[in-house]
Structures are given as structure tokens and as C-alpha cells.
């Protein structure tokens, strides 16, 4: 028998017709819309609040059921008897289902079946029927997920200056863009180029770039997009303490110039220079079309994190071992980068990707990154084999069936 519960609203009160986990009851049980604020001792361990899951995920996913739902494990700790409900949308509204729960001492566990993209798990006090404040877990199920990769290149400015100085007939007379086009032809790859408004030397800025290449940009916009990255490469960490107004001004200036000379080849970015911004700037990015932010989520010895967008420790630790996490407050998806090609030798490029593929929680999305500077022979840290590293990565993910996607299309590129 399916233990389904249907939430009905009558005179402003929420009424749940249900079977309780231990006893079959006739009639209804009224769950108060009031919330119990004493939930410090009640929390979910799995699934992590904001988890993005699919049928190939590792724990807590158990697999698809015969009816097409996604079954997952639930566990947590509690300081009181609790009841668990799942609501099949974001938030506690509409249709819900009471879930059988097993409680031993201060621990509880259960299995639930996800039906929709957004699923909210909510714990209730078994005695008062009040929802326990903070004892929720939003779980996203990507029903149509598939193995895919996203490729972005940071710190672009040299190729813009090169085309401006050389006055090429075509964008692809520049060796850098020609190389990317070759990769596109060979692997059907797509590239997002995250751009500085000006070169490090400040001898060029985007206002100087001609719009005569606009139609050529737009003709190739199916695989080549330009985005905002920062006003300049320097100083380091330019937005670490910047106000939303400062980030917005730099973003808008760069976006306007890209749209002027590249038209529909413009796209919202998926990473900001140095990957650190104040949380109050998340809305600034969301308002400008950003839906996904890629980071390193690498812990440092001083207790800080490298490229984690100032997320709290718990979320950063989760992202060390998972493809992505959804922040329900900002509505942004934070994605873990699989490789930064300029930091990994050619010999270690494939092993690095293999390690991501070997973990079911990081195998679905290959979030690929490198930086423009290392392609240019005049750059002090030029790598002669930089293009070979990209070729190795692109060949490998293509052979394993990963498809190229854009960062901000759909929900996490689905």
C-alpha cells in the first residue's frame, strides 16, 4: 500500500489524510502550520540540504523504482520523537506524503521516493505535530540528467588586443580563436571565454575593439560565447570585499561592450575572477542571468577556502566531493570544477579526469577550466603543451560520451 498523503486546505488549516508509520489510522491528523523553534537537536545528515541528485549519483541514491521515482536514503539525529514528510515542490505546500521512519535513540532513518524536481523533506514533532524549524532538506532530482561537460577559459584579454592591433580580416586569423574552432570541429566542443574589460598592462580595453566582427561572432555563437570576468586581472581578489554596486558596475560595463561588438555571442558568466565575492553580491549576479558558479572548493591551511565564493564551511566541504549544490536562498547552483588544465601537467591530465569519473558523486558533470595566458609565447608562464592538455581532456570526455553544454542553460545545464 502506498503511504501517500494529500494536503488539503480547509478554512486556512492544513489537514493531512494519512497512514502513520507504525499504526494504520482511520481519519485525519492535523499538522499545525506553527513551527517549533527548538530544533537545534534535530537535523538531517542525508540528504544534504540543497543536494542535486540523479539516478547515477552515489549515496544517498538507491536507484529508480519500477514506478519511475527516485529512491533515496534519509538519515539524521534528533532529540525527540519525530515524523517525516516529503513535499513534492520547493517548500511546504500542496501535496505531501508521510514517510515511514525508523528511530533508534537519537538517530532516525528512512527511505523516500522523489517524484518531482524539487522535493522538500520536513521533520515534525511527533507529539505537537508542529514543523520543526530548520529541520528541512531540499532535494533536487535531475530526471533528465546526462553525462555532460562545460568548458570555460578564464582571464581573456590578450586575444582581443591581438585582433585589435593586427586588424585581422577574420577573428580566426588569431591563432587562439583558430585553435578553439579546431577543437569545436574535432569534438563539437563549446567554449565560454571569461573576459577582462582591459589588459593587465592597461594598454587596451574593450571600448577600443571594433564592432565589424559582430556578425562573425554571432555566426559562431552556437559554440563560442564571451562573458564578464573582471575589470582587470589586477589587483588580486578584486571582489572579495567589493560592494554589490562595484560588482554591478564592472559587470555591466563589460557586458555592454561585449554585446556591442559580439551581439548574441554574449553570455552570463559562471565564475568571477578569483572566485570570491560577498554573499550579498549573489543577487547581483542572479539579476544578470547567472545561474551557476564554478569553484575549486579547496581547503587551505589557514582555514580559508580557495575559490569557494565565501560559502560556509559545511557547503564548501560538501562540494569537495559532489558535482554541485543548490543554494535555495540565492537560487544559484555552485558547481565543482573537475580540472584546471594549466595547473595539471599533460601526464596528469587524464588521471585527474579519471578520478572525477570514478566517483559517482562527481562523475556526471565534467566542469572544465583553463586560463588564456598560458597559450601565449610572450607570457612568462607560457606552456608549449597547453593546447595538448585541452586536446587530451576533450578527446577523453568525448570518447566516454560526455556532451558539451552551456553553464547557464536550463537547470544545471539540463
Tell me about this structure.
This protein is of the alpha/beta class. It is built from 8 helices and 25 strands. The longest helix is centred in the middle third of the chain and has 19 residues, at 244-262. The two termini are 34 Å apart. Residues 1-33 have low confidence and may be disordered.
Label this structure with key terms.
30% strand; six-stranded mixed β-sheet; 21% helix; elongated; disordered N terminus; 414 residues; single chain; alpha/beta
Largest sheet: 6 strands, mixed
Radius of gyration: 24 Å
* Average pLDDT level: 91
Tally of DSSP helical segments: 8
Structural class, please?
alpha/beta
Q: Fraction of residues in helices?
A: 10-25%
Fraction in beta strands:
25-35%
Briefly characterize the structure:
With 414 residues, the chain is of the alpha/beta class. It contains 8 helices and 25 strands.
What is the secondary structure topology, with strand pairs?
Elements: E1 6-10, E2 13-17, E3 28-30, E4 35-36, E5 43-46, E6 51-53, E7 61-64, E8 70-77, E9 82-87, E10 96-99, E11 101-104, E12 107-114, E13 118-125, E14 131-141, E15 148-156, H1 158-166, H2 175-187, E16 191-196, H3 214-219, E17 224-230, H4 244-262, H5 282-287, E18 292-295, E19 298-299, E20 305-306, H6 313-319, E21 324-327, E22 332-336, E23 339-340, H7 346-358, E24 365-371, H8 386-399, E25 403-404
Amino acid at each position: 500500500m502506498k503511504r501517500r498523503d494529500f494536503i488539503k486546505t480547509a478554512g486556512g488549516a492544513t489537514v493531512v489524510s494519512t497512514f502513520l508509520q507504525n499504526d494504520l489510522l482511520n481519519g485525519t491528523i492535523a499538522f499545525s502550520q506553527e513551527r517549533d523553534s527548538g530544533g537545534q537537536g534535530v537535523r538531517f545528515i542525508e540528504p544534504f540540504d540543497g543536494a542535486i541528485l540523479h539516478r547515477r549519483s552515489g549515496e544517498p541514491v538507491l536507484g529508480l523504482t519500477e514506478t519511475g521515482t527516485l529512491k533515496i536514503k534519509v538519515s539524521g539525529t534528533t532529540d525527540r520523537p519525530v515524523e517525516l514528510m516529503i513535499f513534492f515542490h520547493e517548500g511546504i505546500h500542496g501535496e505531501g506524503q508521510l514517510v515511514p521512519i525508523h528511530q533508534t535513540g537519537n538517530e532516525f532513518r528512512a527511505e523516500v521516493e522523489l517524484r518531482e524536481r524539487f522535493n522538500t523533506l520536513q521533520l515534525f514533532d511527533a507529539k505537537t505535530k508542529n514543523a520543526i524549524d530548520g529541520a528541512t532538506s531540499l532535494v533536487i532530482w535531475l530526471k533528465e540528467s546526462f553525462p555532460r561537460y562545460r568548458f570555460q577559459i578564464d582571464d581573456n584579454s590578450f586575444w582581443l588586443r591581438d585582433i585589435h592591433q593586427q586588424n585581422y580580416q577574420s577573428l580566426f586569423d588569431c591563432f587562439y580563436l583558430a585553435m578553439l574552432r579546431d577543437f569545436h570541429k574535432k569534438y563539437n566542443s563549446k567554449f565560454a571565454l571569461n573576459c577582462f574589460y582591459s589588459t593587465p598592462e592597461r594598454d587596451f580595453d574593450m571600448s577600443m575593439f571594433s564592432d565589424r566582427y559582430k556578425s562573425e561572432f554571432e555566426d559562431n555563437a552556437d559554440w563560442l560565447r564571451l562573458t564578464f570576468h573582471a575589470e582587470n586581472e589586477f589587483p588580486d581578489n578584486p571582489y572579495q570585499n567589493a560592494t554589490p554596486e562595484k560588482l554591478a558596475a564592472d559587470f555591466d560595463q563589460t557586458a555592454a561592450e561585449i554585446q556591442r561588438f559580439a551581439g548574441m555571442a554574449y553570455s552570463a558568466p559562471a565564475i568571477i575572477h578569483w572566485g570570491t565575492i560577498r554573499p550579498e553580491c549573489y543577487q547581483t549576479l542572479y539579476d544578470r542571468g547567472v545561474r551557476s558558479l564554478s569553484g575549486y572548493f579547496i581547503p587551505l591551511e589557514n582555514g580559508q577556502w580557495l575559490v569557494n565564493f565565501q560559502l560556509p564551511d559545511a557547503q564548501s566541504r560538501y562540494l569537495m566531493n559532489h558535482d554541485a549544490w543548490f543554494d535555495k536562498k540565492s537560487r544559484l547552483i555552485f558547481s565543482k570544477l573537475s580540472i584546471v588544465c594549466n595547473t595539471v601537467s599533460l601526464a596528469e591530465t587524464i588521471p585527474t579526469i579519471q578520478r572525477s569519473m570514478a566517483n559517482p558523486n562527481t562523475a556526471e558533470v565534467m566542469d572544465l577550466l583553463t586560463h588564456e595566458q598560458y597559450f601565449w609565447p610572450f607570457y612568462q608562464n607560457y606552456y608549449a603543451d597547453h593546447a595538448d592538455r585541452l586536446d587530451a581532456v576533450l578527446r577523453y570526455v568525448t570518447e566516454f560520451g560526455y556532451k558539451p553544454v552551456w553553464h547557464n542553460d536550463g537547470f544545471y545545464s539540463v
